[in-house]
Amino acid sequence: MNQPETSLAKTPKRAAVASWIGSALEYYDFAVYGTAAALVLNHLFFPADTNPALAILASMATVGVAYVVRPLGALIMGPLADKYGRRFVLMLTLFLMGGATFAIGCLPTFHDVGFLAPVLLVICRIIQGLSASGEQASAISVSLEHSSEHRRGVTTSWTLQGTQFGTLLATGVFIPFATLPQEQLLSWGWRVPFWLSAVVIVTAYIIRRKLEEPPAFREVDETVVQKSPLAATFRHHKAAVLRIAAAAMINTVNMVFTVWSISYATNGVGLDRATMLWVTVVTNFVALFAIPLAGIVADKFGRKPVFVVGTIGPAVLIYPYLAAVTAGNWPLIFVFGILMSGITYSLANAIWPAFYAEMFPTRVRATGLALGTQIGFAVSGGVAPALATFLAGDDMANWVGVGIFVSAMCLLSAVAALTAKETGKLTLEEIDVLHTTRTEAAEAARIR
Predict the structure, then answer these.
(1) d(Cα 271, Cα 253) in Å, to the nearest integer?
(2) pLDDT, tens digit, for every residue of 416-426?
(3) Phi, psi of 347, deg, nearest 5
(4) Kindly report the CA angle at 342 between 89 and 321, in degrees rounded to 5?
(5) Which range is least confidently modeled, 60-64, 223-227, 358-362?
(6) What whole-number distance in Å separates Cα of residue 149 and Cα of residue 433?
(7) What ranges make up the beta strands (E) of 96-192?
């Protein structure tokens, strides 16, 4: 079916803005839970007579629930995006995430309904996880396929800059409530950031409803009667999925920095809650500038070198950062937090959208990207906060063990990245050819 030329035009700025704002607003929802888990949920959703260390561990485990279910969400959302469109999934995930987040703010606590409270909390986290699994893959695919050639690194980096802004916003919103007296914080203050997701739903809907499907996706959809994108991914692109899953272990840095270290600082060392949240705010503010700059550098020098440097930096800097937290040295906490997460981690965080997405052809891009990233995030995000809590011990003193764990995950991520092909200088058409095997090409030819 022939389309007018204008209907297949790329709109990189519009796609980047829609991906940025939608991801920022949706990941506000996801990040606000992590902050609440580090500060208050251990007091609200678990028995009062529970060992404090066990309550903290249980709270960290609920953070991981959403990550553990994300591979299941990828099995659903990725194929939907490749078959019915990236925009369809972006709208679906918006309402799932926003609704679940608002519901968390309305939940009764353990004091009100007993063990039903943590059960309801986990259900909401499952819905959040299913939503997040489709959000990034679809947003990244939209921005990549609308992008000008050879600017895909910086264009797709805006999606991650959006998620970074969402994390910044979530932490910033919590700061005034964290300064409330303990009784007010635990009675009503913690609920307000979750209720603000109503604004998230309305704003993101207005922005995304006019977003058009990218030309690359529409051309494939019109010329190829697709079989199951999921079956095609498993049959022809398993290696890329596994490579991305291993590379995504770099997310361990983010989880330890934004969730576990806050819990460690406030519950283990006894540092001020609000000041510790300001560390995350300032660091994420720096990352807002570092991420697009890293995308520009990756478009010029390639994906792999930028990504690998972004894995080595945090592997080294995690030790002085945690040592500064342990010593309660605020200037060094800010300095090493910014260096580790705001700058070096941002190199990898900025470029993985283009780096991972370019490991697949257009017809299975969202499926492959969702599967690889969500498997990796399930392991890193689902395990990291709870495992770090376990490694630290009941007295939360073994921060060196946590540092070794983070470094090991960074090393795994770097090794996986080094096995990938460099695609920064290729066009999307050349990438499609590169990743389409002879068998897959023959199958496509037969059904044209």
Answers:
(1) 21
(2) 999 999 998 99
(3) -60, -50
(4) 125
(5) 223-227
(6) 16
(7) none
Answer yes or no: are the C-beta atoms of 83 and 226 closer than 8 Å: yes
Kindly list the distances between the CA atom of residue 378 and the CA atoms of 16, 102, 218, 300, 375, in Å, as whole numbers in the listed order.
Answer: 26, 23, 31, 32, 5
Distance of CA 206 to the CA centre of its chain: 23
Domains of the chain (ranges; CATH) run 10-446 (1.20.1250.20)
Rounded Cα distance between 109 and 118, Å, is 8
Q: DSSP alpha helices (H): ranges in 147-269? A: 152-178, 182-187, 192-195, 197-208, 215-223, 229-236, 238-247, 251-255, 261-263
Alpha-carbon gap, residue 298 to 5, rounded angstroms: 31
Alpha-carbon distance of 66 to 323, in angstroms, equals 30
The DSSP string of 308-347 is: HHHHHHHHHHHHHHHHHHHHT-HHHHHHHHIIIIIIIHHH
Structure tokens at 324: 């500064």
3-state secondary structure of 374: helix
pTM of the model: 0.80
Report d(CA 79, CA 73) in Å as an integer.
10
CA 283, CA 45: separation in Å to the nearest integer? 30
Query: Over the Cα atoms of the chain, what is R_g?
Result: 21
| Structure tokens given for 210 | 């006019």
